[in-house]
């Protein structure tokens, strides 16, 4: 039995968009990094105390933060992207000072960042994609290795390693309705497929027979696509936009979570608590059969994590619900409301706590 108990909350004067974890080198200590819609980084300990506060952008929202020791010097780097289109890379010292390594400027907002040794040279690379239509790959020194361009902005991308050849590919989807596959080392466009509307998410699920590409977006359809001939094998229709899709667990990718998203709370005369959403969370198994559904839930973020012998899913919703689900059957273990849209949820295994952040500036922690 799991009982969630709220340990602490910290309030900031602007919306908190996300959370990452930083490992300090000499102190063998973990720190929370929270990023805001006004371009700040907040450093907190695991008791909710603010340690440091740094302004990074000129009050422009930070959308994505990745933390990892990318150059193997023992100090972790922070890779930051956001609305101002500037990709920033810092080394974090033990006193939490930031040493800027390099920057690179896109023409529009950065949508996402992936850290991966994409050319298999033994060093991590930085993959960044933007609403300026470009996908760009950098080495750890900031050198541009290759770049490709869509007709419109890019919304999502994933890395795939071919089991037979061990070669890495990048699959990306864009607002132009295309799914594109690239050779990770050379950047060569291998193939592309055009759909009727904006695509928002892409993933891969390993079925009983073979891996299948999955993508979806604003036409409210999830597409299952053959790897070899790129034909559509089947589709799944939703009532709302197909917002996110992610396969799991990491080493087998035999299940798929899909969340749909509704914007009917915009300019709605009803209060948010009164709105009945048609959006949902859907779980598929390796036979592409529905394992379970969580209906009438508008999801902002979900994460998977293992706790003891249970695989759990943490969810943050537009209505401010923090939901904990048993992955096996989709049953809700705990559900509590934080009264503001929850933008991200993260589980910290060593602390056994669930961390979340909200539009109202709250960062909070629940023990499990």
Question: What do you see in this structure?
Answer:
This protein has no helices and 32 strands. It has strands at 5-11, 16-24, 29-36, 40-44, 50-55, 62-68, 77-82, 86-92, 98-105, 110-116, 125-130, 134-138, 144-149, 154-161, 168-174, 178-183, 189-194, 199-206, 211-217, 221-226, 232-237, 241-248, 255-261, 281-284, 290-294, 299-307, 310-317, 321-326, 332-337, 342-348, 353-358, 362-367. It is mainly beta and 368 residues long. The termini are close together. Strands 1-32-31-30 form a 4-stranded antiparallel beta sheet, with no helix packed on it. A 4-stranded antiparallel beta sheet has the order 2-3-4-5, with no helix packed on it. Strand 26 (299-307) and strand 27 form a beta hairpin.
Helix content: under 10%
Q: In what order do the strands lie side by side in the largest sheet?
A: 1-32-31-30
How far apart the termini lie comes to 10 Å
Largest sheet, described in full? 4 strands, antiparallel
Individual helix count: 0
Oligomer: single chain
Mean pLDDT over all positions: 95
Q: Over the alpha carbons, how many angstroms does the gyration radius reach?
A: 20 Å
| Broad shape | globular
Low-confidence stretches: none
Which key phrases capture this entry?
globular; mainly beta; 0% helix; 32 strands; 4-stranded antiparallel beta sheet; 368 residues
